[in-house]
Amino acid sequence: LVASYYVGGDTAKFFVAGRTLPLPIVVMTLASQCIDANAVLGNADLSYWYHFYDGAVLPIGLGLSLILNGLFLAKPINEMKLLTLPDLYARKYGRLTEVLGSLICTASFIALLAGNLVGCGKILAYLYPTVPLKAGIVTSGLVMLLYTAAGGLVSVAYSDCAQAMFGLLGVAVCALWAAHHGNKAPPDSIGFPGYTYPDTFGQRVCDKYDGVPCENDAAKCCYNTEKWCPSDDNCRADNGAYWWKGGDARIFDSVNEQGGNQMLNPHSLTPFPNAILFNWATVFILAFGNLAALDFQARCMAAKTAKIAQIGCLMAGILGIMVATPFALMGGVARYYYGPDSMHAEFEADTCHRAIDFPTCAQWIPDKQAVLRVLTKVAPNVIGAWTLIGIVAASMSTSDGAILAMSTVASHNLFANLPRFLPKHFDADLVTTKNKLTLTRFFGIPCTVAAILIACYKADTTGYLLVVAFDIVLAGCVVPIFGACYCKTPSPTAGLAAMVGGSLLRIILEFSLPKDGMLIAPFGGDEFLDYGRPKSSLYPTFFDVPEADKWSRDSDQCEQSRLEDWTGLDSMLAPAFSLVCFLVVHFLEKFGGVTLVSSWLVKPVPEELDDDFLPKKADESIPEPPSTPVKPKAPAVLPKADEEAAAEP
């Protein structure tokens, strides 16, 4: 309400907070984007479902994007005095590129908003079991829409500051607790009666659990039933899921006896597959795709000075990486209490796998609420509550920024362009300074509804939609931004070619590259085989039974196909092709004397022809393309310079 009174009818105050944001507000409002439900809850969920870096790549990529933005883009974008990122496309490449960029960026942010709504809805549904997940998603969306529409970026930025401080502290405290928690990752399995340890007497695992000679082979070390399970009501045992040395602790403690880091060695997680290609692609997508984020750049435009925008990005990026990355350790804690060796574990019975030596019941089914259960049942009450409230607060911070960015672009860059593209069907004064704020608030409704629908459709995922969001814009929207900032007079056709070429190639590769949905590239080794259908009813090799009763991993008792999913390669090839398109067309037009497209659609829009770039004149009208016979409205008397400007398309 306070922000609504402050904004009044001023579009600059609504869209970019009057370009008055000081450094602390810029830092907090940017850093909050690294600790929302996508980046934090998705981080812990992916770390729990897979391994540490599968989740940690999310905040690492987001933090790197802020650092890159501070180094290369924040200063020129702030100095251009834009209202939206698509204004940059209009300023440098013309109206057609502006509209295409607006459509792509809006689609991207619908996915981003949907991901945060999934996270918030998931928390609400867990805390209040009577509330269905989809109802939680709808409620979250409506709440965020209401207070965003009231005060624009003023309400967004200053509420972000409080939300970010609370969220950052909560996430940091929780990560610190996870790092020093006694059970921060599943260790070697203690096993059960008849379980054989992976080493022998005098070695680590056997001695750790005081193993005894096995009944069928005295040279092997087995579970000490007398010590650990003297009776049914006094028995310490687990599922024997980690029969190899180290368990998951070798990953989360960085003690990997297989040799190599998860981000450098595809076989570092053996006997499990490593999504190393997709993880590197995720870092690349978030680091560079986020440079075309509407909300990030809106905050840079709203910074009081270019220096504040630069420093704010750098500080926020470092802060986000330092706070949010360690939160991936929560995945290890969740695996200890709700992982494959826990009493809560569930397995798909009709599965087998040679690499993990299970003839049946090989595939573990993760608990989708595991991280939330740890926060509410294992962590101290204060830390758990603080973290959950902080995640919701940070998600509201990202979501309100996304709603504002989308609705602003929809009214300012899409709806306002209808008279230019369809002059026979829309009046030139369709959007004016008097109705622009009303239209912007209205367009927040369909954008939010679209995000709610997608969130309800993908209600069982967190983190995934974050990658999708910036994958959309990375393909074609990022290269034109660098061209606009670092080419003195970039070819307008080059910007259009880069946007269209990169986006089209991304769509083509999406459907042409082999993808089985598992996100694992086809490296060699049994760990990169998919689960098969069991053909054997014999025991795994780590059971203390006669050899004749054990299955053989080398024989054809588990038919498995190799995993093959090249997801991530397409995301890296598309922007590279976009860059090639830009360079080829730019040099052809600038140095080859070739004009590929000659139209008002690719004519850069001068600052003075857009009613929001500079201080506005009382009755300034929207210019029309040259083919339109209707003259633009103008005051009876104008200075000559303004009269010429108003007549240009």
Annotation keywords:
disordered N terminus; two-stranded antiparallel ribbon; 2% strand; 649 residues; mainly alpha; two-stranded antiparallel sheet
What gyration radius follows from the Cα positions, in whole Å? 28 Å
N-to-C series of helices and strands: HHHHHHHHHEEHHHHHHEEHHHHHHHEEHH
Overall mean pLDDT: 87
In percent terms, what proportion of residues is strand? under 5%
Count of distinct strands:
6
Q: Characterize the biggest β-sheet.
A: 2 strands, antiparallel
Helix content: 55-70%
Sheet with the most strands: spatial strand order: 1-2
Can you count the helices?
24
Structural class: mainly alpha
Global morphology: elongated
Poorly predicted ranges (pLDDT <50, ≥5 residues)? 1-11, 611-624, 627-646
Give your account of this protein's structure.
Strand 1 and strand 2 form a beta hairpin. The chain is elongated, with a radius of gyration of 28 Å. It is mainly alpha-helical. The strands form three sheets. A two-stranded antiparallel ribbon has the order 1-2. Helix 6 (85-93) runs antiparallel to helix 7 (95-127). It has 24 helices and six strands. The longest helix has 47 residues, at 133-179. It has helices spanning 2-7, 11-16, 23-31, 37-49, 52-79, 85-93, 95-127, 133-179, 204-208, 225-228, 249-252, 276-289, 294-302, 306-324, 329-338, 370-378, 381-414, 418-421, 436-457, 464-474, 478-486, 492-512, 569-591, 640-647; strands spanning 212-213, 221-222, 347-348, 363-364, 533-534, 558-559. The chain is 55% helix and 2% strand.
